[in-house]
Amino acid sequence: MTDGEDYDAVVAAVRERVDPDGRERRELATVVERLRERAERAIDDLPVDADVVQVGSTARDTWTAGDRDIDVFVRFPPDLDRRNLEQYGLAVGEAVLPEGRKEYAEHPYVTGEFEGYTVDLVPCYRVAAATDIQSAVDRTPFHNEYLAARLDDDLAAEMRLFKQFLKGIGAYGSDLRTRGFSGYLAELLVLEYGSFRATLAAAANWHPPVELDPEDHGRRSFDDPLVVIDPTDPERNVAAVVTESNVARLQHYARRFLAEPDVEYFFPEEPTPLDAEAVREQLDRRGTTVLAVRFDAPDLVEDQLYPQLQRSLDGLVRGLAAADFEVLRAATWADDDAVLFVELSVAERPAVERHVGPPVHVAEHAAGFFEKYAYTDAYGPFIDDGRYVVERERGVTSAEQFVRERLLDVGLGAHVQTALEQGYEVLVDAAAAALAENFGAELAAYFDPSP
Amino acid sequence: MTDGEDYDAVVAAVRERVDPDGRERRELATVVERLRERAERAIDDLPVDADVVQVGSTARDTWTAGDRDIDVFVRFPPDLDRRNLEQYGLAVGEAVLPEGRKEYAEHPYVTGEFEGYTVDLVPCYRVAAATDIQSAVDRTPFHNEYLAARLDDDLAAEMRLFKQFLKGIGAYGSDLRTRGFSGYLAELLVLEYGSFRATLAAAANWHPPVELDPEDHGRRSFDDPLVVIDPTDPERNVAAVVTESNVARLQHYARRFLAEPDVEYFFPEEPTPLDAEAVREQLDRRGTTVLAVRFDAPDLVEDQLYPQLQRSLDGLVRGLAAADFEVLRAATWADDDAVLFVELSVAERPAVERHVGPPVHVAEHAAGFFEKYAYTDAYGPFIDDGRYVVERERGVTSAEQFVRERLLDVGLGAHVQTALEQGYEVLVDAAAAALAENFGAELAAYFDPSP
């Protein structure tokens, strides 16, 4: 990063790149109009009434230039039963996006390409208030209305800056891999604090847990590091998915940026992927033991896959710790293959382990312990600090043995369990360098970790 | 041990061996009389009055057969100043035991061989009560009087049984290596419970802390696992030196013996010393790393040497733990050489260590941490659970390196420190088997630990 670039100059340069120009706006408007018409025609063929609303950042002029996502919601009467809602919704979706495919959130919806844009066509209920929703998506039009009523061009530009900043630091997106700031949350924060700069200044000084309630109507408490009560629903924390680390990440980069503004925070360089040789060098330098479990990635959408992988990685790390091995750091990555990558600072244990029994004075319990071990191969029982202690044979003496013999016994995500039961490969130390072929960028970030 | 020997038969067999016969008694009485005469003659040459009292188990008929220790105390007037007490005391000691040598407790005294017995000739003050003592040894004659007034032949026999039992299980002796039950304490317990068997039955059911106060005059509390208020001094715990483990040891063996009486508890077989080959086999089987620090033993009496060695061993174990190595077990032994013997279950660490910094939101502290590491070779800072974390280079990556480079920095006994500064040898793994030459019996007990 270069030193001392002036805040205004940096922001101007970023706006050059993130503010959509007139042509992009006009093109988008035309495409949205065409989608709306097609949807309304399809609705005319249905036995119920429905309306069409555009939502999301492209509806509010808060998208960053080059984003090609359009969200169109079709709102049905709230007394329509679920089966019909789904059936009519898919009918409209298929009519608007004949090349599209079904996806599943709470309801099925249709997603597809349309004139170069990625369009989601989502059925929902037209409820009277966000607190009456029958399905999570029913809330979205209220979010859209709330923000649209409070936005002007200047504020929209500030929101674009903040969103691009979050993208640059890797904290944008409420998907379950990132667990960062959603677009709606980002916009609410800028609305609350008044500008991009004020938002960063506020975040830099946060002391989590941070609680914001723009409409001052919250009526329950949340156990999250960041709480932003939904202006359209007093029972909901818009920031529920945001991790403590992503809050900290925003705080860290807000401070750094305000101290020394730089365009690079918004558009960071991608790290150069490591090759196998570079991975081996890192492992040599660190002197750790690496174990990588490689298996066929379960066929799941990312929002299901990554929580499963993370849960499985946590289970493996806990299992290794319970077997007295010590994990320095761990990560999980996926493309066609999935990988649980574990780096150990203690990967070997001797053949015996210390096992502490009850205090000798707890007569019955102590006698049971003594009888259990007195006539075995264990060393002892002997007495240490008034307790029986034995040194008994250890079942697993290396982390590699643990992974080869016990992996399926640890807490794993259900789909990961199934995939591992089909077989997996364990890459140890230098052999793990082969992961560079598919995960060179991930390994680069792993071995050069930034906040 | 053989099964099912009957309690009475076992006790009878033990009494055969521990009750002194008439000849031993008569011989002892003759020797004591001769000592007394010699002491009284020496006192006649002094410018002060003094009397001679025999104390200890040979004075009370509670010694076990074959014990050859006689304690003779010379009591001086309480207004005699310390220098004269010491001078006169030594004069008497040297007259009685011309071949004897000076030893130092609170005062100097003379110890020596006399007609086949080991005699301590100790000067003290003839105070009015044990609570008026000017020196710890002044108390001893009161202990003797208290017990002598309450003993008969049967009770003395019960005391001999209990003492021999304590010897057999390795818990006899208030010296600072054993930290077990003194003769006086053993006798008080039997006096309190009424018999050897009742003492074991009571001990088997103890729930430490155990508090006994035979004269019901205790007026302070103690933080010891076993408290026996001295019948001659309400401020003193006779069992202060007894460790939790020795209390537990007595409880363990009391239960075992009562369940299955056997002479062997009183006269256990000595373990066969291990040779170097057997030590290597043990280390192979256990798969641990052994480090032994060998050095010239400081020239100290055992009651000073063993606390120093133990403190040094504790310091080394704590130092290793603070450097992230894990000690499975450790021991210290001495003859001409002293040894700190440490067996590790984690003896190696990678080149990097995880170092957790402050939460990112603690702005000033966090910024200091970030600035400290951001421009170094350390990996990170990155963010984990909302905190800055780095992986930095580790100073010491093996326990052997620690012992070679840092041993003198750990908490050591002062005399051990001085001895180690003169030089020490580090024996690693198989090389430590060479210790079998001098410490074969200790190694045998180490690798076949009993309660």
Give a brief description.
The structure is a homodimer. Chain A has about 450 residues and is of the alpha+beta class.
The count of β-strands of chain A is 15
What is the level 1 CATH name of the largest domain in chain A? Alpha Beta
Helical stretch tally of chain A: 15
**Which value, in Å, is the CA radius of gyration of chain A?**
27 Å
Give the CATH topology of the largest domain in chain A: Alpha-Beta Plaits
Q: Based on helices, strands and strand pairing, what is the structural class of chain A?
A: alpha+beta
Gap between N and C termini of chain A: 15 Å
Give the helix/strand layout.
Two copies of one chain form a homodimer.
Chain A: H1 7-18, H2 22-44, E1 51-55, H3 57-60, E2 69-76, H4 82-96, E3 101-104, E4 108-114, E5 117-125, H5 140-148, H6 153-169, H7 183-193, H8 196-204, E6 210-212, E7 226-230, E8 233-237, H9 244-259, H10 276-286, E9 289-296, H11 302-322, E10 326-334, E11 337-346, E12 352-359, H12 363-374, E13 379-384, E14 387-393, H13 399-406, H14 414-421, E15 425-428, H15 436-447
Parallel strand pairs in A: 2-5, 6-7
Antiparallel strand pairs in A: 1-2, 3-4, 4-5, 7-8, 9-11, 9-15, 10-11, 12-14, 13-14
Helix pairs in contact in A: 1-6, 2-4, 6-7, 6-8, 7-8, 8-9, 11-14
